[in-house]
Specification:
Layout lengths: L5 E7 L2 E9 L39 E4 L5 E4 L1 H5 L8 E9 L8 E9 L4 H14 L1 E9 L2 E10 L2 E7 L21 H14 L11 H15 L18 H24 L1
Helix pairs in contact: 3-5
Length: 268
């Protein structure tokens, strides 16, 4: 069982629900060391003050905020501890919204909430009430000395908490929109819908794997064992297609062929 990263309580009206917080995700990327290629020695860095040139132990390093005029304001741990943050140990419910109303662009990280001690029954109460109403709870919470907006929602038998970005942390993406005068024909849209229909299905994330990570792991093991990697067959080059309808029609046929092959593989 993973270790909890935070303990507090959900403030659900006059009901208090003690909870523990667990990270719901973990990175599976391959990590590398920075090394000297001639002898494999690891590259290490020193924390050196640019003013006095001394190496500074990590425990003695403070946080500084540089003002627009160049002045540096030094903040100590006591300064952060004295901030009047009401949500330090509580998850304060501020609003209920429809579960599909929040744009996923706002989501940052996902956590599991576990009932702690006497919080089991009110936890189940909140979970079931949200499930039956189709609502999610917008909350405010402080994690790692930073207040965040978050969304509580039920999933199966647990409550998930998605921390969210603040509105001013989302960039304006209007620059990426195509010019308004670009139009597509009804035939092109219909063929695009046919391609969508050909690949439509239930989302089963277990069917997908990280091909790049698998190839990287194979490369590392092959170099460690001194065995060359088997050569991959060269992918056929696709002909350039200018006609969108023709390109989509070919895509539909290819998608149907891949689906048929996948279904045959499952049946074997």
């Amino acid at each position: 069982m993973p270790r909890s990263i935070w303990k507090g309580a959900i403030s659900f009206g006059l009901v208090t629900i003690p909870v523990k917080l667990f990270s719901a995700t973990e990175e599976k990327d391959i990590s590398f060391r920075q090394v000297h290629p001639e002898d494999g020695g690891r590259i290490k860095y020193k924390r050196v003050c640019e003013n006095c040139g001394n190496e500074i132990p990590y425990a003695e390093i403070a946080k500084g905020y540089e003002m627009a005029d160049g002045r540096m304001v030094i903040l100590e741990k006591e300064d952060f501890d004295s901030l009047p943050l009401a949500t330090t140990k509580s998850v304060e419910v501020v609003q209920f919204v429809a579960e599909d109303e929040v744009d996923p662009t706002y989501f940052d990280k996902t956590y599991f909430l576990q009932a702690d001690g006497p919080g089991v029954k009110p936890y189940v109460l909140l979970r079931d009430a949200l499930s039956k109403s189709g609502q999610s709870a917008v909350v405010k919470v402080a994690l790692r000395s930073r207040e965040a907006l978050a969304l509580l929602r039920p999933k199966d038998s647990v409550l998930l908490m998605h921390t969210m970005l603040w509105p001013d942390e989302l960039r304006d993406g209007s620059f990426a929109a195509p010019p308004a005068d670009v139009r597509v024909s009804d035939a092109e849209v219909t063929m695009a819908q046919s391609f969508i229909d050909a690949l439509a299905g239930d989302f089963n994330p277990e069917e997908y794997t990280d091909a790049y990570r698998e190839a990287l792991e194979a490369l590392v093991h092959s170099k460690a064992e001194g065995v060359p990697l088997p050569e991959e067959p060269e992918a056929p080059k696709e002909a350039e297609v200018v006609d969108l309808v023709a390109a989509l029609r070919a895509s539909v046929e290819a998608a149907k062929k891949r689906r048929d092959q996948a279904e045959k593989a499952k049946a074997m």
